[in-house]
Amino acid sequence: MADVAKRAAVSPQTVSRVVRGQTNVSEVTRLKVELAIDELGYRRTGIARALVTGHTMTLGVLTQGSVAYSRAAYVAAMTSAARHHGYYVAAASVTSTVPKAVCQSIEHLRQQGVDGIVVAVPVYDVDALAQAARGLPAVVFGGSSSEAVPDDFSDGTGHHAVCIDQERIGVLATEHLLELGHDTVWHVAGPSTWADASGRQAGWAATLAEHGCPEPPVLIGDWSAESGWRLGTLLARMEEVTAIFAASDDMAFGILRALVDRGRRVPEDVSVVGTDDVPLAAFAPVALTTVRQPFQDLGTAAIDLLVDMVERPDREHHGVLMEPELVLRSSTAPCHAG
User: Fold this and answer.
1) Which of 50, 66, 81, 272 would you label with 187, given CA atoms 20 to 30 Å apart?
2) CA-wise closest residue to 301 among 31, 37, 48, 82
3) Is residue 275 domain-shared with residue 170, that is, in the same domain?
4) Is 220 contained in some domain?
């Protein structure tokens, strides 16, 4: 309310009286305050609610700088969900996910007076994150599972994780390819420093072991189509490769191009499964079978949980673990050995 008071050249108490509709304010002063509210772009309902609750009605969202579809999808969902609850979103991004950079960004959002924060970057140091967010309702978004980020990772301050089961992604993709009769499945993974990539790889390896299949060497990409094409070029030269699970759709697109360049047909010679279900997946030259991640639903769930933590701090809260979904298209088919 300080911004409105300063703009109108009145006290915060006067702003409070105007917003609450009290009559002990002159008409001139009332008009000055209302004009300041309009000029600053505030909503009267939001200001009134903030006065009653003591909240700023602003939520912080910390993301990793990226143009990836996943980031755009969940940030849009978070912004929409926050608006539905009457909150604004203060967004910040980091180019480095080392604990120091993440903690500094959390402190930056704290200084902006946010009521709570969604941390949508890979978490490598749970203790450091808990310390940085001490006293601030926080939701950790993403990660592999509750094993990577516990449901309550802080020392009693009640921060929670909202995740998609990344190991399940690896299981769904690998089981599908094995059920089609492939002897084994090759994996093009994301960077080993990402919990998401590690989770998908773990699910892939566990499924191969469960079915008694040999585990081929893992090829590490960087999520990009270029890295998928580069690694796909290596795989395309190997006649024994008949099934590939890529840790992202973008890498899968690169793999598809590499296979075509080498004269390998999809899915007749090689079946390919991606991860994410980006919009382009359904419209690729060979429509991509993939494992869908419910980014929008997860973004909404993160904000719903955070708002509940802010407005009902005495209630018991729990993290959310969502299930991925296999989406069957044209890039996979039964294996025709020989």
Assistant:
1) 66
2) 82
3) yes
4) yes
Q: Which domain holds residue 11?
A: 2-53
Full pLDDT tens readout for the chain, 338 residues = 666 777 888 886 787 777 766 778 888 888 888 888 777 766 555 555 566 566 778 899 998 876 577 778 888 999 999 999 989 898 888 887 777 888 888 888 888 888 999 998 876 666 777 777 788 899 988 755 444 444 444 434 456 889 899 999 999 999 999 999 999 999 999 998 888 899 999 999 999 999 999 999 999 999 999 999 999 999 999 999 999 999 999 999 999 999 999 999 999 999 999 999 999 999 999 999 999 999 999 999 999 999 999 999 888 888 889 999 999 999 999 997 55
Tell me: do 41 and 138 sit in the same domain: no
In a domain, 329, yes or no: no
Cα four-point dihedral sign 137, 139, 145, 149: negative
| Cα–Cα distance for residue pair 336/77, rounded to 1 Å | 43
In a domain, 209, yes or no: yes
Q: Taking the CA atoms of the chain, what radius of gyration do you get in angstroms?
A: 25
Question: Which pair of structure tokens corresponds to residue 330?
Answer: 């044209």
Q: Which residues of 129-165 are buried (b: 16+ CB within 10 A; e: fewer)?
A: bbebbeebbbbbbbbbbbebbebbbbeeebbbbbbbb
The verdict on 146 and 201 lying in the same domain is no
Residue 239 domain-assigned (yes or no):
yes
Strand order in the sheet with 138-141: 88-94, 58-64, 116-120, 138-141, 160-164, 320-322
| pTM greater than 0.90 (yes/no) | no
Q: Are residues 171 and 152 in the same domain?
A: no
Q: What are phi and psi of 307, to 5 degrees?
A: -60, -40
Bridge-based pairing state of the strands 271-276 and 116-120: unpaired
CATH of the domain at 40: 1.10.260.40
